[in-house]
Amino acid sequence: MGIEDTSESTISEAQSNLEREEKQSVQGNIAIKGTRNGLLLTLEPETPFSELLNALSYRLSEAPGFFRGASLALDTRRRDLRTSERTQLEELLANYQMSVISLEQTLKAKQEELVSVPPDIPSDIVLMPTITAEFQSEQAPEQIERLDPRDSDDTLFLRRTIRSGQAIQHASNIVILGDVNPGAEIIASGDVLVWGVLRGMVHAGYPNNESAIVCSLLLTPVQLRIAHLLSRPPDGYQVQARPEFASIKSGQIVVEAWLNGHGRTTRK
Amino acid sequence: MDSRVITITSGKGGVGKTTTTANLGTALAMQGKKVAVVDSDIGLRNLDAVLGLENRIVYDLVDVVEGQCHLRQALIKDKRLPELYLLPAAQTRDKNAINSVQMEQLCQQLRQDFDYVLIDSPAGIEQGFRNAIIGADEIIIVANPEMASVRDADRIIGLVEAAGKPEPRLILNRLRAEMVKRGDMMDVEDVLEVLGIDLVGIVPEDEMIIVAINKGQPIVYEKRSRAGSAYLNAAQRIIDNEVPLEETEEELSFMERLRRMFGFGPAMAEKRVRS
């Protein structure tokens, strides 16, 4: 009997320890700061959005009275939200009669805040692109390219074949030395350059950078997207055995030979 | 001699994984190697039937893993070759009946008694597939020269590499030379261009395979079958990676065809066996 009792108490102790640990890690992903102009919500750039949402929901439920009716400014400098993510966030906040002010509206106010930053927000916040190389869960951890946005360069360079089922997302340009096979997905906010055969799906200029281009040594994508436009090769289209580049011209995705001068698009 | 665990997989179903496993296993055993073929397609077992051993099953892979019997009790000795054994899958269970750790232990156990352990993987990329590759030293992907199969093979290559296994090799199965010639089928080059991996063999489409499967007798016993000789050659390449790929499997010379018509057998394969 005595033995059983001890073990039970150890288990419950361990459980409460576990809970405490969980609480801490959950809270570490988000930060809510009170400022002169209201509350400022900062989201950890590397954490999956669902976890952030859980953490926020937990935080709000701890002190519902405090947060009720408050307006919350979202700090998008380290992590920007997709439309669907933003909707989810707004739904959660609506439960507490809270609203989201976008950062742009409060940008001026925040410049002032930065002078008196709380200790755990670095004072030298710089606008940095978020890098995520998203792979399927079955990928072994060592294969996942986890690049820290702070010490990476602008452009993501990959020297391998991107195969079916693999998805690469990056907030800037992507250069691939290798092929992009059917069933692979490349999504970049900037340009996509494939030094190889492009057979998969590429989205350059995601979500709305219309000056983005896609080029490859052989351009035969399943589908090509630039900014908000989507195109596919016309039925019966003969693949041109030459390097080509695609860009938006007068509101349409246009594919041209990537030859002398043609590729030299004027970029600002 | 150190033993090799080789998993035969494909992603897509129906491309010839089980047929390939049965024939490579038989061909390796014909070379005097001690071979175990393992059916890891739990719930949809077929390898036993292709080898003509279904009526001898008493225990299966799940029984071994669960400790219901010893490995030796579950291994079924082939009726033709003394060095070939089959570990059948359970038919009344599903893929979740075993986990990756158990499968890896099983591979280690089989390694001690055999030169070659060939694992027949289920289709798909779920638990059953992961179990099948976990203990493998090498992966052989079976693909047909058509788009769906090649795309699935490409997906599998990505997953195999992500699992930390060496780059898989390819068996291109059911190639129809006359269709390729007409431009109606992807040829070897087209497939390799997308997948970018090494070939172990090219197996032509062959009606005799269906007859062989129904009889429960692997096609490698059929001296006049081109598919059979292709499998024999592939087995040679598995034993000794230096054997060059012959283009004869795709474009047989007139003389060769004539010789085979009169039953002189696959000359290429015989030459290799002797050397």
Oligomer designation: heterodimer
Percent of residues in helices of chain B: 40-55%
Large-scale geometry of chain A: elongated
Order of strands in the sheet with most strands of chain B: 3-4-2-5-1-6-7-8
Low-confidence stretches of chain B: 264-275
CA gyration radius of chain B, whole angstroms: 18 Å
CATH architecture of the largest domain in chain A: 3 Solenoid
Largest sheet of chain A: 6 strands, mixed
Low-confidence stretches of chain A: 1-9, 21-26, 112-152
Largest interface: A-B, 18 and 17 residues
Total helical segments of chain A: 5
What's the mean pLDDT score of chain B?
Answer: 89
- What is the chain-wise order of helices and strands of chain A? HEEHHEHEHEEEEEEEEEEEE
The CATH C-level name of chain B is: Alpha Beta
Order of strands in the sheet with most strands of chain A? 5-7-9-11-13-14
* Structural classification of chain A: alpha/beta
Largest sheet of chain B: 8 strands, mixed
**What's the CATH superfamily of chain B, by name?**
P-loop containing nucleotide triphosphate hydrolases
Describe this structure in words.
The complex is a heterodimer of chains A (268) and B (275). By secondary structure, chain A is α/β, with parallel strands linked by helices. Chain A has 5 helices and 16 strands. In chain A, 24% of the residues are buried. Chain B is an alpha/beta fold and 275 residues long. Chain B has one domain (4-274): P-loop containing nucleotide triphosphate hydrolases (Rossmann fold, 3-Layer(aba) Sandwich). Chain B has 13 helices and 8 strands. In chain B, helix 1 packs across helix 11 (226-239), helix 5 runs parallel beside helix 6 and helix 11 packs parallel to helix 13. Chain B starts with a strand and ends with a helix. In chain B, 49% of the residues are buried. The model of chain B is unreliable at 264-275 (pLDDT under 50). Classes of the chains: A alpha/beta (268), B alpha/beta (275).
